[in-house]
Amino acid sequence: MESEGNGRMCVTMPHILISVVGIEKVIPTWRDVEVYLQLLARSATGERMNPYTSVWTGVHDGDGPQEVHIVLLDNHRTDVLADEVGRDALRCIRCAACLNVCPVYERAGGHAYGSVYPGPIGAILSPQLRGLTDPVDRELPYASTLCGACGDACPVEIPIPAILEHLRAKVVDTERSLPPSPERAAMKAAAAVFGHPLAFRAAERAAALSRKAFRNERGITAVPGFAGWFGARDLPDPPAESFRAWWARTDGGTR
C-alpha cells in the first residue's frame, strides 16, 4: 500500500526480489487485510483507499520477478513484545496520524528523531528496538508534551502517552547504571556547592579570581578546557562585588 507508485516499480522490475519485513507486519488472513486496507488510507490521507494497492502472490513466468525471497526481521521486536507496556507500539500501521497532530513533530521535523521512525511512534518504538544506551534514544521519550493528541488520533488505539511515561522511567533506571555524563557531573557538583555555605563562599572567591584571570575587553571569551563551549558564546562577567559582600558592607542595604 503506497501513495506514489515507486514501490510497485521497484518490485516489478528486478529479476530477483528480496523483501525485508518486520515480523509485526505479518497479518493472519486475507479478511484481516481488508480491514487494514480501509483503516490505513482513512487514517493516513483521508481517502477511501490508497492510490496504489498491489498484491503479489508468487512467481509467474514472464511477469515480474522470477525469484522472491521474504526475510522476516526480528531485530529486537520479540524483546519489545516481552514488555507488557511497550509491546503496544508494535500495533502501529504506519499511517502517521500521530505525526500530523503532534506539536513537537510539527516544529522539530522528522530528521530530529535520528531514526526512520519519526514523531510520537518513533519516540516509543526506536528506543525499544535500539536500546537506551545511546544518548539520542534516551532523549526520544522526552520529545513529547504528553498532551495526549497522539493517543487520541491513533486508529489502533496505541496508548502512546502511557508508553512514553513507561520509557522515561526506564531511562532513569538506565542512567543510574551508566557513568555520569559531564552535564550530570556538573549538576552534582553545583548541588554540592549550593548546599554548603563554606563551599559557596569558596566558589564566589573562585569566580572573582576568574574575572581577573580570564577577562578581556569583551568579557570572558575563553577558559582552558572549554574551547567548544566558548566557540559559540561568551561568559558574562562575574560581578565585581557579590551580593553577599554587598549585603555585609551595606548592612542589608540600610547604609
From TrEMBL:
Keywords, in A-Z order: Electron transport, Iron, Iron-sulfur, Metal-binding, Repeat, Transport
Domain of life according to the entry: Bacteria
Record domain 4Fe-4S ferredoxin-type: where: 83-104
GO biological process, one term: lactate metabolic process
PROSITE patterns according to UniProt: 4FE4S_FER_1, 4FE4S_FER_2
Name the record gives this protein: Lactate utilization protein B
Pfam entry (one): Fer4_8
Coiled coil: none
PANTHER family cross-referenced by the UniProt entry: LACTATE UTILIZATION PROTEIN B
GO molecular function terms attached to this record: iron-sulfur cluster binding; metal ion binding
